[in-house]
Amino acid sequence: MASVNKVILIGNCGRDPEIRYLPSGQAVANVSIATSSRRKDKNTGEMIEDTQWHRVTFYDRLAEIAGEYVKKGRPVYIEGRLKYGKYTDQSGQERNTVDIIATEMQLLGGREGGGAPSGGGDYSAPRASAPRPAASAAPAAARPAAGGFDDMDDDIPF
Q1: CA distance 133 to 120
Q2: Is the CATH number of domain 7-127 2.40.50.140?
């Protein structure tokens, strides 16, 4: 049976990315993304905003792109997968971690002086799996021609 580990986030960057390079030369960038939801408190009727912080890690070329274009406060779309881990803190207590390993990123919003490519950007990490099939495999002759009113069918039911 196949399984899926996929996360999609749309949120705001909480800090500028931290970029480092592994001894192998592989680029790694880490950033925090904030997502918010709003709900109405049943007792007081006040709107309560709940903000969740997500740790996102980029690798290779995607890390370099994130380091160049992602800035604190900018809205961003992230696709990736969850990765769970454990570490022992300074007091000897074992802690759990949840990271999102980003595979795709799209910058949202305007340029805001950040130097991002016009219209935002859609960036993907290289995939190890087979490429996605083409959107349309129909031959060009089977596609309808782009014409005016003369090409429309006269049997319109309204």
Answers
A1: 25
A2: yes
From CA 19, how far away is CA 59, in angstroms rounded?
A: 10
Q: What is the pLDDT of residues 52-78, one digit of tens each?
A: 999 999 999 999 999 989 999 999 999
Residue 1: other Cβ atoms inside 10 A? 2
Q: How many CB atoms lie within 10 A of CB 103?
A: 19
Three-state DSSP state, 54 = strand
Half-sphere exposure of 34 (CA within 13 A, CB side): 13
CA distance 100 to 157: 51
| CA dist list (Å): 141 to 107, 116, 145, 147 | 37, 39, 9, 14
Of 36, 45, 47, 59, give the one whose Cα is nearest residue 126.
Answer: 59
Q: Report the candidate in 111, 51, 126 with the shortest Cα–Cα distance to residue 75.
A: 111
CA atoms within 13 A on the CB side of 4: 4
- Tens digit of pLDDT for each residue in 19-41? 999 999 999 999 999 999 988 88
